[in-house]
Amino acid sequence: MIKKVGVVGAGTMGSGIAALVASAGVPVVLLDIPGKEDRNEYAKRGLERALKAKPAAFMDPERARYIEIGNTEDDLEKLKDCDWVVEAIIEKPEPKQALYARLEGLLKPTAIISSNTSGIPMRVLLEGRSEGFRRRFLGTHFFNPPRYLHLLELIPTPETDPKVLEEIRRFGERILGKGTVLAKDSPGFIANRLGVYGMVQAVRLMEKHGLTIDEVDALTGPLLGRPNSATFRTADLTGLDVLKLVTEELAQATGEDFALPEWVHRLVEEGRLGEKAGAGFYKRVNGEIYTLDYRTLDYVPRTKLELPELRALRDLPLRERLAKALDLPGKYGAFLRELFAKTAHYTLEKAPEIAYDLVSVDQALEWGFAWEEGPFKNMDAVGLSRVEALFAEHGLEVPGLLRKAQGAFYKDGAYLGFDGAYHPLTKREGVISLKALKSEGKTLLESKEAALLDLGDGVALLEFRTKMNAIGEGVIRMLQKSLEYVEEKGYLGLVIGNEDPRAFSAGANLALILSLAQEGDWDELSLAVRQFQKASMSLRYSPFPVVVAPFGLTLGGGAEFTLHADAVQAHAELYMGLVEAGVGLLPAGGGTKEMLLRFTQELAPYEEADPFEAVKRAFNLIALARTSTSALEAKKMGFLRDRDRISMNRDFLIADAKRRVLELAPDYRPPLPPRIRVLGSEALGNLRYAVWAFREAGEITDHDMRIGLEIAYVLSGGEGPAREVSEWDLLDLEREAFLKLLGTRKTQERIAYTLKTGKPLRN
């Protein structure tokens, strides 16, 4: 069992790996070569780099305390009690081999050793090592930044002990939250070999078809099921120097043509390396983004590709979108067809050389390059006959693997093996797929906005299906139906979760709220807010446990539902906040009430504590619309409680939430509604003065001041003496304040602006 990890090499990758391991609560020894004045200078610098990294390398900066630093001359002994040592030093065989020679006589006989090399063959690294060392050695290729990219490629050698491989796989998946893929010991392994080839082809075909950088990124991003960063923005984030190095190494190792155009080399020579240098393929000028004109190497204002055919494809499912994208008119369609043909052909040719099965190839591109679906799924979507026709169109021979396919690479729960036979898709232990449940007929209730699914073992799951999983009338109606169904049918409990890649829920349906406000339908709005409040409260007081499984964006109403659950099973990457103040409102689905209740209850055991501290803490959280940057931070902020749990791996989140329901279900009883101590006029006076002081200092606008005063009124329980009130007393105040703010022109302007731009307006 891995209880302590050593990382040798405190560069970008090594320090990032150390930060991820420490974030998971595992002690780490981080070593680098000795410095001249300060012997630990380089390890210290690596740790500082990780602490300052954007996006953040640590899920909680305090977890840096799990890291002990040192240098490879004085402190190698610190690795003696490590269970796993990751080598992440310079990408040359000789220094790596020299380090392994020193480690071999030092580490305990059960310690696992791995290299984070991105391409040096394992057989080269192992030259001169003993049989025992070889059995405990493998490649563990993380992707940068290690915290955020899901993929961890495992490269066993023929001599790697299967138990060692299984232990690293378990630790990688469960503790570090990675999607692990077995790769063969070939140059670039899987993801880089195919992903970098695709990037090089996109650059070359841009020139051939006379496109611009802006046009290529518009065509190779979400349109193809790829990230928004597409091709050139991804290269800027990675670094043009890194791209140059990787392409040169791949070319040297494979003998294949990975050459980048001469003008890319010029950018590297001039230090235009991308995001870290302030300029690359893109450059920010006075807050505006400019794009490189590769013909002149000057930067020009960014242009958006406006094409009616593209707009028509935007909201289609990926499989339809992909097939139709290849039929775009003119140079855009020609570019995409040739890019698809060349990358698909290369994938088919190289897959048996770099991977053990095509499922691993798809997972590697999905997890390492954030593709919505991998290349073999893409080919199935387009249709294999169309793929073959594209090869013919571009003078490419039909690869043997395509000839073996009988109509599709995936069918009837099986995938095509490299041996030409179809093999059953293996179910990953501890993973529940909602997509699979639906295909198996496990849907209990369904509407356009939401569905209730049977997770098995007496547990149901409510899934939202709206855009960004926004909560509106349809979702609330399905929630009430689901709660009734679970009780009537004798289910043990309910999970609320979904498989959206980005958002558990971005909050309430703002467009509907704005529309009703502009129509002046205040009775309907008051009823809608009350229904939302009742929905939140029903999660708390249902006669069975409700566990919410939030991840990604969990904002506004999504956060309020989470706050009212019996228990929360959160993904580590949780961006949770009550952000209503940003659109000129306050949380009115129970969020304002709940934060006051939580913080007041936390202080209750301490007689000497000032009760106003609870009010102040809730006010700062809500008025500043603070959002967590991880589940660990959400705990510190008070959005998650000590009893709430965190899943490092999103793939296990639903199964972990189900397990939590089963733990809570025996002898479950709903909690007794609490009485809440409010401070009345005393607290209100303090908060009014603070808000006024911020306005006098010019730090907030008049409308910010109004929002702050409404939040203060609710958190104080209104005017009057300190007293105990019920939850519904505060919910009524929430609803009243929400409707008052919604009736103002400035709040309506803020909502409209956010709906249009996705950004807040300070008016």
UniProtKB/TrEMBL annotation:
Record GO terms (molecular function): (3S)-3-hydroxyacyl-CoA dehydrogenase (NAD+) activity; NAD+ binding
UniProt keyword annotations, A-Z: Fatty acid metabolism, Lipid degradation, Lipid metabolism, NAD, Oxidoreductase
Catalytic activity: a (3S)-3-hydroxyacyl-CoA + NAD(+) = a 3-oxoacyl-CoA + NADH + H(+)
GO BP: any one term: fatty acid beta-oxidation
Lineage: Bacteria, Thermotogati, Deinococcota, Deinococci, Thermales
Residues of the 3-hydroxyacyl-CoA dehydrogenase C-terminal domain: 188-283
Domain of life: Bacteria
Identification of the protein by name: 3-hydroxyacyl-CoA dehydrogenase
Gene3D superfamilies, sorted: 1.10.1040.50, 2-enoyl-CoA Hydratase, Chain A, domain 1, NAD(P)-binding Rossmann-like Domain
Organism, scientific name: Thermus parvatiensis
Pfam families, sorted: 3HCDH, 3HCDH_N, ECH_1
Record-annotated 3-hydroxyacyl-CoA dehydrogenase NAD binding domain positions: 4-185
Pathway where this protein functions: Lipid metabolism; fatty acid beta-oxidation
Alphabetized InterPro entries for the sequence: 3-OHacyl-CoA_DH_NAD-bd, 3HC_DH_C, 6-PGluconate_DH-like_C_sf, ClpP/crotonase-like_dom_sf, Enoyl-CoA_hydra/iso, NAD(P)-bd_dom_sf
